[in-house]
Amino acid sequence: MHSRDHVSPDPAVEDSSVNLAPADQPRTVHELAERLLGAYVVDGGTVHLAGCLLENRLFLRLAARRGDQSVEFFLDRQGNDVSQAMAQTLGMANTTTLPHAPEDAGEAMRFLAEVGRRKLAERWLGPDPPTEVDLAAVWCAFAQGKLRFTIEPHAVDLPFADWARSLKPPPFICPHTNRTTYHVTALDDGRIVAAEEAAACEQSGQRVLARELVSCAATGRRVLPEFTATCPATGEAVLRSVMVSCDVCRQKMSPAAVQGGRCAACRHRERVSKSDSRLARILDEHPLLDRWRRWRLSEAAASYHLTAHGWFRRLLVIVDKDSLEIKLLATGHRLQTTWDVVEPDQYDLVLRG
Ligand SMILES: [Zn+2]
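Above: the input record for the complex with zinc ion. Below: its predicted structure, written as tokens.
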């Protein structure tokens, strides 16, 4: 069946050229699907082929012989040599005959035959021309399409493109973490992610990305940030539900930061003069404080704690270190140890008094 002729004459290749295909390449989309889809685990959902095109791409196989001397090589449709590795990948060594060409390739084959003969003439080492030159069209299937991972109500597509014979299930690329995986799951908000990146909030049970959780500094539990607050004493994230209040400044904080009912800042305040740069900044920002005296100051992670004396009352002020905003104002009788918290709209009134 192979067309036989000599190196030099008659480059014409008839439509009766032999058509071959690698014997073990997938022939149908169904075969391809079977090979791909089994690779994935999709929690509570499915993966299927959402569009897949199997395209037969033309190669030329040229084999020439004379006695025990032979030459064989492959060209792609553009007439370029196919490397040995590529020929192996495509399975060109083991082919079956197709009943007909998958498409009309007469012109392409005439071009390839011409290039092939030219190359053969360069590569044939014997003094006499080959007695047999076999030309065959080899049709290799190229697959492209996409896999669709569906976990209702959402879906994520994963494109692929490779030779059908060597196509391997591509790893799912998590659109939210870029992690590659073969195990796909959905979060409670519906996002489809790599299962290895999912975790449950230990407070609410909500399934989210592990990287969206924070560690509670007091309990070590991994929880959503919304269940935590920044401890004003330590600056660490702590579950609100385990925070305790300082008896003096009323701020909620990590249990570890409170001893004997008082936070570190309330346990020890240093006497400072108005020339202390921190106090000077605060008095500059809040001029009404300037009439108070005998200032004491301590620092917590994000705030200054200050106490001062007036004629009849004591004052407790907590000021944000960055903004100098008053976060808490309380007054107490000079002879008592308890504090009365002042509402923000009363600040001016109290400070004047
Ligand atoms: Zn305190």
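Notes for the reader.
Confidence is low (pLDDT under 50) at residues 1-15.
The pocket of zinc ion is lined by residues 246, 248-249, 251, 262-263, 265-266 (CB under 6 Å).
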